[in-house]
């Protein structure tokens, strides 16, 4: 099973995983890592390594982080650079995490990363745009 680590600025990862469990159910082989004010990127690398030690990532690991180029991304990059079976996807949101968990037993790491990106992108909707397109269809 591919391990999932959610890494974000502040407590967002903890709350995101709490919300994920409301939608998905019990989380297995998943860890959340926070990056708190005053911490260094080196300290965050240590926290990510400690999280990996608690997970089974024999099939790979995927880091879902909040900002491309932010400290969680940079820290995860330092780890991923040394492994072929670790990937990082930025822009983490609830639909992305749920989609990754639903599909991780049937997807390889590369496919899972693409699904994560699609889920994140496809989850953005405008009520007004949907309403206008439905109104046009009714005409």
Average of pLDDT: 96
Bin the helical content: 40-55%
Strand order of the largest sheet: 2-1-3-4
Principal-axis shape equals globular
Largest sheet: 4 strands, parallel
Low-confidence stretches: none
Write down the CATH topology.
Rossmann fold
Q: Over the alpha carbons, how many angstroms does the gyration radius reach?
A: 16 Å
Number of strands: 4
- From N to C, what is the helix and strand string? EHEHEHEHHH
Please indicate the percent range of residues in DSSP E strands (runs of 2 or more): 15-25%
Number of helices: 6
Domain PTS EIIA type-4: 1-124
Organism: Paenibacillus sabinae T27
Pfam families: EIIA-man (PF03610)
Subcellular location: Cytoplasm
Architecture overview:
It is a single chain. The protein is an alpha/beta fold and 139 residues long. The protein has one domain: Rossmann fold. It has 6 helices and 4 strands, in the order βαβαβαβααα. Strands 2-1-3-4 form a 4-stranded parallel beta sheet, with helices on both faces. Helix 1 links the parallel strand 1 and strand 2. Helix 1 crosses helix 4. The longest helix has 14 residues. The model has no long low-confidence stretch (mean pLDDT 96).
